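Reviewers of the previous submission asked for a worked example of the structure-prediction workflow described in the proposal, so we include one complete record here. The input consisted solely of the amino acid sequence. No template or homolog information was supplied to the procedure at any stage.
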Amino acid sequence: MAEKEEIFSSEIKHDGFFSFKDFYKFCYDWLTEEFGLSLTEKKYAEKLKGDSKEIEVEWEGTKKVTDYFKWEVSVKFRVLDLKDVELVEGKTKIRTNKGSIKVKVSGTLIRDWQGQFEKSSFRKFLRSIYDKWVIPSRVEEMEDKLADKCDDFLNQAKAWLDLEGRK
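From that input alone, the workflow returned the following structure tokens.
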């Protein structure tokens, strides 16, 4: 069995104005194009509460980094009290949303994702030696890169929400 280790877990929160549709697209595009993940939407749930909505979205993404390493990233959106609003900017009206959003990201490093060292007990023993003595700096490098990419995504998402909220 492949060895999984959670390397990164963090979240951002935003209250105010933002276009959920545009934010959703921005996040999806960034994760697939900049991060290089193959994304799957595991959950999309919408609940109506009077004139507002609650939305929950869960994405899972993977990226095969090498024949030995693979990244697995989980992104969860929770939107509360989402309402459609119109803002007037100059002489133009802008349709957008107002609400509270929380984005949680976790990143997991998977070693031996193809199970090459799982074929016998001796190979499992060799993997422990391989991980501990042959490639510890490579493991650390993969952990750092994964954490940096996850952190970059959250920073970009936060910056997008902050810019959008100033309109």
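The beta strands are 3-18, 38-49, 52-64, 69-89, 92-111. We consider this example representative of the routine output the project will generate in years two and three.
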